[in-house]
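Hello forum,

I keep getting stuck at the same step: I have a sequence, I want structure tokens, and every attempt I make locally crashes halfway through. Rather than fight my setup again tonight, could one of you with a working pipeline run this one for me? It's a single chain of 374 residues.
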Amino acid sequence: LFLPSMDPLNPVDPMEEEREEEEEEEEEEDSRREKNSLLELGHVNKDRAFVARGAQVNVYRVSNDGITPDSHVSITVPGGDRGCPFSPRKMMIHDRDHDLLLLHPTNQEKIYRMDMHRGEVVEEWGALSGVNINQTVPITKRAQVEGSSTFLGLSEKGVMTLDPRLPGVDKASLDHSNFYQKNPHFTVGTTTDVGHLAVASETGDLRLYTSGHTHQRSKTLLPGLGDQIIATDTTPDGKWLLATTKEYLLVVPTQMPNGKLGFETRMGKEKPLPRKLQISPQDLALYRIKEVSFTPAYFNTGQDARTIITSTGPFLVTWNFRKVRQNHLNDYSIKTAERTVVADKFVEGVDDKVIVALPHSVKMEKRVVREWKR
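Reply #2:
Ran it on my machine without issues. Output:
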């Protein structure tokens, strides 16, 4: 039996070389195929998951046993010569799962409403002429369940309340919108159960607005650490704010000693220091993570936030939020997925089941609570 010679200082496993060659071939084949890009879970139909893949939205059925394909629809821009497929850059479930709101990758002034019963785009809306829309946000955290026509739109320079019932193509309610003279470079936002709004910026700042008063100045401006925030989430009661940057997460308490929230009154000198969550250098080396690039982080859904989930590359990372609240910031667990994770969200009402979108598949992963690392 012939065995290739091996450098005793740097041994090469032939089987490992073969595996690496196979992975390279698979990656080359993957690069030529459309990939999953976005994930949304049903709010009324809690057994549904919606995954954008190129110019299609694939629908999956979620059960206790796992996740299976249900149906798929193609996204097309309605009308004339613009009726060509597009891959949305963002999407949001709206109006009790009846609609899916889609943002076009290049025509950034438009919002496309997909009727999920008909499986096609039926309307296109604008906010204001010449205003690009970075993100759509539910008017409250529960609006997608309770049903609401209105929703929020974020642009670089301001916050808009959008009402599809308004006449014409542009749906921004000017009386309930606010634009800054000096560009704050807004990126993303999130709302609480009662509709308080947190908006993040490219510089990492966080602005907190009172429910129903997003057309006014923010109550509190929380300075960031200088890095762009790519996603935000809050606990339902708004007492804790979660922000995602490329290489770390920030957890910020918003409740002051008098019980008031920073959304409701100015925090002034009582502004808290954010709690910074990141993977330790030891674990970066252990899991051979060369570069951290976190996907949007979320709390588990429901009234009792217990866990935070995000991912980087093929690794799902979950933090014990109860420990984070006690300033124990290294209580996290890492689990390896099959491929690079595109997006991940907790199944409604639990924190041990996660829907995970990989480039070419969608799976349910289980987080075993007893495997907390630290």
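Helices lie at 14-30, 143-146, 281-286, 321-325. If your local run keeps crashing, start a new thread with the error log.
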